[in-house]
Design a protein that fits this description.
This protein has 107 residues and is mostly helical. It contains 4 helices and no strands. Helix 1 packs antiparallel against helix 2 and helix 3 runs antiparallel to helix 4. The longest helix has 22 residues.
Length: 107
Amino acid sequence: MATLAEVEEALQHTAAVPVDQRGDAWHAYVDGPLTKRDILTLEQTFPSRSLHMPTRDDIERAILGVTGAPDTGLLHDATPALVDAIDELINPKPTEAAAYKPAKETR
């Protein structure tokens, strides 16, 4: 996997191409390192996150950040249930597939 430094180096090389010589192929190529840089920057900014859904800890931190992390009261009591509900919506647990039943022969 490329590091952010390697991606930046690749972008520096692409920047060395004169502007009047940057055709469709150059633009198509440069999109890859630009996207990779965005992904790596996001991963470094939010280490617990990936391109996938937030974790339970991310959800709880967000709720506590919005509510002011109360020590008592309705919001304090409801926070675990809110975390559970949001986590179930975003990260549903796998369900057991229905047992396979072959069709009955009707000869």
